[in-house]
Design goal:
The chain is built from three helices and no strands. It is mostly helical and 78 residues long. Keywords: Membrane, Transmembrane, Transmembrane helix. This is DUF6199 family natural product biosynthesis protein.
Length: 78
Amino acid sequence: MGVPPQLNVLSWIIFIFLCVWTGIALFATINPYYIWKITEGWKAFREPPRSYFIIRRIVSGVFALIGLSLLLLPHLLR
């Protein structure tokens, strides 16, 4: 007896979501200024202070670690 096809499709959707999540979080960790420019820069009159980008880098790094751990969790539980 195999895995139902609905479960297989759902697992692929979750896998793709986690890959996109982790990729965006890694990119935001590497270049938080570009992410700010895309999401908030168009409505700002001036750039935020340097501490804003440091905090954004830390938070996005945490989200990248969460994404990586969720991607690797099935392999670690075997």
